[in-house]
Amino acid sequence: MTYLDNSATTQPEKAVAHKVYEMLTECYGNPSSFHKIGLNANMEVRTARQKIADALSCQPDEIVFTSGGTEANNLAVFGAVEANRRKGKRIVTTEIEHESVLESVAELEKQGYEIIRLKPDKYGNISQEQIARAVNSDTILVTVMYINNEVGSVLPVKAIKKAVARANAPALIHVDCVQAFGKVDIKPAKLGADMVTITAHKIHGPKGVGALYIKKGTRIIPRQYGGQQEKKIRPGTEAAPLIAGFGTAVDMIPNLKEQGEEIARLRDYATERLLNIDGVIINSGPDASPYIINLYVPTFMTSQTVVQHLSSEYEVFVSNGSACAKGKRSHVLTAMNLPNEVIEKSIRVSFSRNTTKEDIDRLVNALEETVKKYPI
Asked: What's the pTM?
């Protein structure tokens, strides 16, 4: 089996699964209960919060646990806009954000907010100048992802703070770091971010748990009500088993520089081999994250059919874009203004620290056979 769909989800580490199982079977108390089992569960939640805070170089009380990246993004976008609604009407984002941001701002647009959606170039890049031009004194939120989940473009998120200051805007800054956390060094203070989204299942942790960093002193309005948990920003019984698993996954993040160098070597090897297949086009730019390669496959089949064919015939697992899009036409490749033929027949290959050269060889061999057997 060759698994190369790590931008959708990663394989959980065994230590993570063991931690979740231990929490479910031995430390199953409600973290808000004051008896021993509850206090033990509470301690596990606190330990995980500290580990995540250490990884982000922030304070533990700046971490709010959520059910994942989508909820964290919704909480950041709606919470920030509701808190700042009397200060302005402009929201700045891009056309290539995750659906959880795009659909959130689309809803706010219906409510009368002005949405500025920055358009990428042919590699999915957004420039600092675009951000600077878009932010004005009426801007109350800038929400931009760090690394794009489909083509791997790295967005200039560190330029947002300067643009906000130059425009004298009351804007809060939200950075979706779901594809960046565990791959590059993320420090919200250095990013100039008021809010940062991360999630566990992209770093070999469990699904169903994520976190939103909220800078101390930043005011956002909750999206739900009903308890004292997570400082009332995200009330409800904490998913202690998943949170503890998240903490364990963070503990297991290797040296990011060394991991990045190894992934870059694999990306270069994969790119060289893929481009030897006649007609293949790499959609990801030269400066994209090495963890993601988006490529056009020259066959009569659509990308979704290619994905299914590679899975059933070769046990090679890739995707045709964001898993959350459920097979819909890629809004990212569309925003990049690529030809329809390329948009409809492109797949995403995404790596993790478990990826090997043998995985890449099996992928390339499968694609070579597929292109020869099913030409355009």
From this structure: 0.96
